[in-house]
Write a structure and sequence with these properties.
The chain is built from 16 helices and 14 strands. By secondary structure, the protein is of the alpha/beta class. α1 (11-23) links the parallel β1 (3-7) and β2 (27-31). α14 (342-348) runs parallel beside α16 (377-383).
Length: 391
């Protein structure tokens, strides 16, 4: 049984729709104008909205605009006795599912309403599935004391808008920590925009972060929004921020201080509402002493400081990590899950993991390719550390 809201200023139409929809086993709420309807939307959850266009006070198009902004997953069917093609097109562009003229054709109304609710249900299910899939790739696997401490910190920090600086060696999982913070935050439904500061040439990083105007430099053939604009309302993850140029650092500092950015070649400021999470494998205090990193930016970024441990500092997590990677890789390959013997896990725990979690995953994938369905200690000795990385 669906809950449907009808907003129409004609009592006869409201009552007729209520009678028809209740006969179809739906629950119906009525509103005589846009103001009433918006108030009901704040108080209750609906599966669909039937919305008249011509009404006193707030008209249907204004209500639609508000609904599209505040309840983007709610399917809306517009109804009107004064409709034109232009009005219908405008309504669809604003987010309405369909447009039906009065007098209402009962069969068309019911079919349209059913299709609208089916689409709404599909959108909701797709979002839920995407969240589940994304969450699977945002896990910190392990139960060691250092990892439990980080998980507890993430749970406390995530619901706030505090800036976070994540430090740790390459391959320890700094990006996973950043994505977990975003997924548990109030911004989880908004964008998570990642910028690898080390991979972008210094002369292009300002354009990448803040965007540019057409003609501002050679190759700027059109206006382009930067990563900060793309992340508006969500989170921007500045990975390897220790490799950012001093000039770009100055502009990032301004963005953090004023919540404004300026595109390259533009005079006009753009307001942005972005949570900043940064990460680095460098010792920023040493970088500050060497004059390569701004101390004021460091203090702006490190409201919360999270140090991700190396794999060598959490070897007790290796059995859980190995099982996780075996499951993941076998599922991706569409093959039955392989097993790994306890002695093989013990051998993995002896390795000096200079590449941390990333290196462990590569080793597990190598073992799965080269070994039989059961990974033994001998297999680990043969294939896991060909460069002699055993302690």
């Amino acid at each position: 049984m669906a809950h449907i809201l009808v907003i129409d200023d004609e009592r006869a139409i409201r009552n007729s729709l209520k009678e028809i929809l209740e006969y179809e086993k739906h629950r119906v709420s009525l509103a005589a104008n846009g103001t009433e309807g918006l108030e009901l939307l704040k108080k209750e959850t609906f599966d669909a909205l039937l919305l008249d266009i011509k009404m006193e006070g707030i008209d249907g198009m204004e209500v639609l605009e508000q609904v599209s902004k505040d309840y983007p997953d709610l399917p809306v069917v517009m109804i009107s006795g004064h409709g034109t093609v232009d009005t219908a097109v405008k309504a669809i562009k604003m987010g309405a599912f369909d447009f039906i003229e009065k007098p209402l054709d009962l069969n068309r109304l019911l079919i349209t309403l059913r299709n609208a609710m089916d689409k709404g249900k599909l959108v909701t299910e797709t979002k839920t599935l995407r969240k589940k899939v994304a969450a699977k790739n945002r896990e910190l696997i392990g139960e060691s004391a250092p990892l439990k401490l980080i998980k507890a910190m993430i749970e406390k920090v995530a619901p706030t808008d505090a800036r976070v600086l994540i430090t740790g060696q390459n391959g320890t999982g700094k990006e996973v920590v950043a994505r977990m913070i975003h997924s548990l935050s109030n911004r989880a439904d908004a964008a998570f925009v990642e910028v690898n500061c080390a991979a972008i040439p210094s002369e292009l990083i300002e354009s990448e972060l803040f965007g540019h105007m057409k003609g501002s430099f050679t190759g700027a053939v059109k206006d382009r929004a930067g990563k900060f604009e793309q992340a508006d309302g969500g989170t921007i993850f500045l990975d390897e921020i220790g490799d950012m140029s001093l000039s770009a650092q100055a502009k990032v500092l301004r963005a953090l201080q004023e919540n404004k950015i300026t595109r390259v070649g533009a005079d006009k400021d753009i307001d942005v509402n972005v949570r900043v999470i940064a990460a680095t494998n460098k010792n920023l205090e040493e970088e500050i002493k060497a004059g390569r990193f701004r101390e004021d930016l460091y203090h702006r970024l490190s409201v919360i400081l999270i140090q991700v441990p190396t794999l060598n500092e959490r070897v007790e997590d290796i059995p859980l990590l190995a099982d996780y990677f075996i499951t993941q890789i076998c599922e991706e390959s569409g093959v039955a899950k392989s097993t790994i013997e306890p002695d093989a896990l013990a051998e993995l725990q002896k390795i000096n993991w200079t590449g941390n979690i990333r290196e462990l995953r590569n080793v597990i994938e190598r073992l799965l390719i080269l070994c039989d369905k059961n990974i033994t200690a001998k297999d680990v000795q043969l294939y896991a550390h060909p460069l002699g990385s055993v302690n």
